[in-house]
Structures are given as structure tokens and as C-alpha cells.
Specification:
Layout lengths: L2 H11 L7 E4 L2 E4 L5 H9 L4 H10 L5 E5 L5 H9 L4 E5 L3 H12 L7 E4 L2 E2 L4 E7 L20 E8 L1 H7 L5 E6 L5 H5 L3 H7 L2 E5 L5 H4 L5 H9 L1 E6 L3 E3 L2 H10 L2 E6 L16
Parallel strand pairs: 3-4, 3-9, 4-5, 6-8, 9-10
Antiparallel strand pairs: 1-2, 7-8, 10-13, 11-12, 11-13
Length: 278
């Protein structure tokens, strides 16, 4: 752990308080006591920095960045601060996480470019049971109980699809979709056919052996999705291309994060020197 990160944990996360928050990209982020996401942000300096760099590289001027599984808002804040020419739509169904996410947005200087959708994403709209754990382990909740993050309670939440949400937003240009929804990524992408076909956004997905079995999703489903929509698959960090089920299996030993980039028109956008700074 970095010394600076340890100091942040002590200064902003210690003790018994009525409210916890810490500075991040010039804003304040509110979080529950003993938050896993807060601890990771302290340890890493910038939460998931490779993903932040990728998103900031591929978000195009005037477009929407769809942040699915927003939790307390760290991924949204980083892009809002770094890209003044985009809009962020954060999708988060967890009632606990939403409490902190909405408070964070209210305190953010870029709130006019930041929309929060209090729903889950899946293949079809409606309602579903969301498995919610303790506030500190809020990043582990989802539409299936994966067994990660301790005991969970099933609660009813509203569900939409990427395509329905895209329609409701007025079919804007969507340049990046990030999905970190504990194994539900494949299911959510099944409801994104129109958007993926028309917009061809860059995708960031969590793809974990610890989560996929709860949804009955095979490891190589990500390759099938990539083939269907003419995407290349790359592992993070390093951005090594994954071209076969064997390569995917090996990459999944060392990472849970993969990006999909449209082919053959996967030329990088104009932001060629995107930087990340906390």
C-alpha cells in the first residue's frame, strides 16, 4: 500500500462518523463506513487507472459515457473531470449505493453533465430481485447471488435495457459503455443489440470466473459477443488481444477486466494523450 493511500484511509475513513467522504478529482465522494471501493481507491491512487485511461481515450466529444454499475461514482467522476465535452449516465440499482452516489453527484461541479438512472440492466425491462449485501461490500451486489461479499438480502428493483435507456435518452451518440455488474454483463449486452449495432461503442466489462457460473454463462461467451458485433477483445492491463478461448482462459487467471473495441473501424479518437490525475 502507498504511504499516501494509508494516510487517506486514516484521515477520511477512520473512526465512527455520521458521514464519510474524501476528495477525488476535485470533488467529494461520499461512501459508507469500511467501504471496499474507498479502500481500493486509496490503495491505487486512482481507482482502476487502466480502465479510466481507456475510457478517457475512447470517449468522444459530445457523446455519452454509459457507466453501468456505478457504485459510489468513482469511474464517472474521473471522466467528468478529465473530459469536459462528454456526458455521463450512471446506472446503479443498489438502494444503498444510490444513497451515496446521489449525494456525490449533488456535490459535484459537473452535475449538469451527470445523470443517474436508479435501475438494473438486463436483457428485458421489468422488475427483478437484486441481491444486496452490507453497505461496505456494496460492489458485490447483483441480480444473482454469486456468493461474494457475504450474506445478501433479495430486494425488488426496476430493470431496463441498454436499448430502452438509449431510446429514452433520445438516441444520443454513445461512445463508451462500462459494465461492472458482477456477472450480469452478458445478460445486459443481450438487451443492447440496437445500440451496439448502430453506435459501436467501446466496451469495458468485468469477466470473472467467480461470477459467471451464477448466470450460467460460459467463459467464451465474450468471444461470441465480439464475433457477432465485429469487436476485438483485449485484456486489461496491457491491452493484449484475446483471439481464442485458450488465450481468454489464460488471461482470466490474471485479470477480470476486458475491453472490446469495434473492428475494422477501431481507430483511436482524437484524445491521443489522455492522462489520469487524482
Amino acid at each position: 500500500m502507498r504511504l499516501r493511500g494509508l494516510a487517506k484511509r486514516i484521515v477520511y475513513g477512520a473512526g465512527h462518523r455520521t458521514e464519510y467522504s474524501f476528495p477525488y478529482f476535485g470533488s467529494r465522494v461520499f461512501f459508507p463506513r469500511n467501504s471496499l471501493i474507498f479502500r481500493l481507491a486509496c490503495d491505487q491512487g486512482v481507482y482502476e487507472p487502466d480502465v479510466v485511461r481507456f475510457v478517457n481515450q475512447f470517449v468522444t466529444p459530445g457523446s455519452v459515457y454509459l457507466d453501468v454499475g456505478a457504485n459510489i461514482g468513482l469511474m464517472a467522476i474521473a471522466t467528468l473531470a478529465s473530459r469536459s465535452d462528454c456526458t455521463v449516465v450512471s446506472v446503479e440499482p443498489s438502494p444503498i449505493a444510490l444513497t451515496y452516489l446521489q449525494r456525490t453527484r449533488a456535490a459535484n461541479a459537473n452535475q449538469e453533465r451527470w445523470t443517474i438512472v436508479p435501475k438494473a440492466l438486463a436483457a428485458h425491462p421489468g422488475e427483478a430481485v437484486f441481491f444486496e449485501g452490507a453497505a461496505a461490500e456494496g460492489a458485490m451486489g447483483g441480480l444473482r447471488d454469486t456468493g461474494r461479499g457475504g450474506d445478501k438480502e433479495g430486494i425488488s428493483v426496476a430493470v431496463t435495457t441498454v436499448d430502452k435507456l438509449w431510446d429514452e435518452l433520445g438516441r444520443p451518440t454513445i461512445s463508451v459503455i462500462k459494465m461492472d455488474i458482477e456477472g450480469g454483463e452478458c445478460n445486459a449486452l443481450a438487451g443492447a443489440d440496437a445500440c451496439l449495432t448502430a453506435q459501436r461503442p467501446a466496451l469495458v466489462v468485468e469477466w470473472s470466473r467467480l461470477n459467471l457460473p451464477s448466470y450460467g454463462v460460459a467463459e467464451d461467451a465474450i468471444l461470441q459477443i465480439a464475433s457477432r458485433y465485429r469487436y476485438g477483445v483485449f485484456s486489461v492491463p496491457g491491452f493484449a488481444e484475446v483471439r481464442s478461448a485458450v488465450e481468454l482462459s489464460l488471461r482470466m487467471i490474471e485479470t477480470e477486466t476486458f475491453v472490446l473495441v469495434a473492428k475494422p473501424d477501431h481507430v483511436l479518437p482524437k484524445h491521443k494523450n489522455a492522462e489520469v490525475a487524482s
